[in-house]
Design a protein that fits this description.
About 5% of the residues lie in helices and about 70% in strands. The protein has one helix and 18 strands. It has an 18-stranded antiparallel barrel. About 20% of the residues are buried.
Length: about 400
């Protein structure tokens, strides 16, 4: 008989100890996947001058456990990756990511709590770390979120939430730049179901950002009203849209000097989803506050699509494309256009074994300079614990 991950019993014990779950009626699910792979990247740093190409080998572990009681669910995941390059001038890339999510149902609503920690080099994924395409950098992120839904009636609810992150950012190979910054956003939305298919929301959203390095300190805030629409077009299609118009304020302190600026802008997100007998598709357009490591809240315009399709019982295809435009609030030197596209074929070799062959293309334009990169990846994943292992 397969045994769950060793920390599955710990999750159940934690919930039982604090009195929010019953081990007698609890369901425990766990998994652990090990992936080995190889890749070739034509331009690791995505630069037009002196591009560096390299082959690499990757080992990855993805694991998790969930505990579900009558009114409470706890989910935990632990993921790690190590990437070794054949170019001696490149540092090995490593990452670790730990996430915990707790959901508690109440008589009139629900509470969701999330905690996370990650520490990663951007060489693991050139698109993207912290809103940038590339840079041999390392980021350590400690994050948390809290959300509460209050059911006012059978068709009306009030949603409130806040999330925050503390980030330590550094250029890893040269060690010439290190910076900490804090980012938080919140929302309060009144939601109403007008029918079984249509839900609308009205409320307010805001964000806060603070960062500093040496004698430079940047602070930025946004706040404004927001509306949302969630519509199930039919049993297979859905649409979601949310818009906000926010007042923005930025304060930059450079030594003894203070610089203040203010303005306003609109933000939003539109998403369309469709499922088919043998696949699915998604389209999205977004304008969002883009946190950058220099302490400003720049703006990102983004359009993307993704699809998946089963070609046979054992072979499937997936892919997607994303176009972004980053606009700096203070200088045109920070403006950036970029594109990322990928396509993959996945083979199911057994109930617990999967093989993937993927291709990715990256392009960016900044300061009149164009750069692109091609990546080919082959990976084999084996589930060693959990369902189908």
């Amino acid at each position: 008989m397969k045994r769950p991950l060793h920390y599955a019993s710990a999750a159940a014990a934690i919930l039982a100890a604090i009195g929010i779950g019953s081990t007698a009626s609890a369901a425990v699910d766990s998994y652990a996947d090990v992936t080995g792979g190889a890749a070739y990247e034509s331009n690791v740093f995505l630069t037009s001058s002196d591009p560096v190409s390299s082959s690499s080998a990757t080992t990855r572990l993805d694991s998790g456990v969930s505990f579900e009681g009558d009114t409470t669910k706890l989910a935990m995941s632990l993921d790690g990756q190590y990437q070794r390059y054949d170019d001696g001038g490149l540092s090995d890339a490593t990452s670790i990511d730990v996430q915990t999510a707790l959901t508690k149902e109440h008589e009139y609503g629900e509470t969701r709590l999330g905690l996370g920690y990650s520490n990663a080099s951007s060489l693991i994924d050139a698109f993207e770390t912290n809103g940038k395409f590339v840079g041999d950098q390392r980021e350590e992120i400690v994050s948390g979120s809290l959300a509460r839904r209050f059911d006012l009636s059978e068709t009306t609810a009030l949603d409130a939430g806040v999330d925050a992150s503390h980030v330590t950012y550094s250029n890893t190979p040269r060690g010439v730049f290190t910076e900490d910054y804090d980012f938080a956003n919140g929302n309060v939305m009144w939601q109403r179901e007008l029918s079984e298919r249509l839900k609308i929301g009205v409320g307010a959203v805001g964000s806060w950002y603070s960062a500093g390095s040496g004698n430079v300190d940047n602070r930025a805030t946004t706040v404004g009203p927001a509306v949302s629409v969630d519509y199930d077009i039919d049993d297979r299609s859905s649409a979601f849209a949310e818009f906000s118009y926010r007042v923005t304020k930025t304060q930059t302190q450079f030594g003894p000097f203070d610089f203040d600026s203010s303005g306003s802008d609109y933000f939003g997100h539109v998403e369309l989803r469709r499922t088919f007998d043998s696949g699915s598709a998604m389209l999205s357009v977004r304008r969002a506050v883009q946190p950058n490591s220099n302490g400003q809240q720049d703006i990102r315009d983004e359009a993307g699509c993704a699809f998946s399709r089963d070609l046979s019982q054992s072979v499937s295809a997936r892919g997607g494309a994303t176009y972004i435009r980053d606009r700096s609030q203070q200088t045109s030197n920070g403006d950036r256009d970029g594109f990322a596209g990928d396509f993959a074929l996945d083979w199911t070799l057994g109930a617990a074994t999967h093989l993937s062959l993927a291709y990715r293309y990256l392009w960016q334009h900044q300061d009149g300079d164009d750069a692109d990169a091609h990546t080919v990846m082959l990976s084999l994943t084996r589930r060693i614990a959990g369902a189908n292992s």
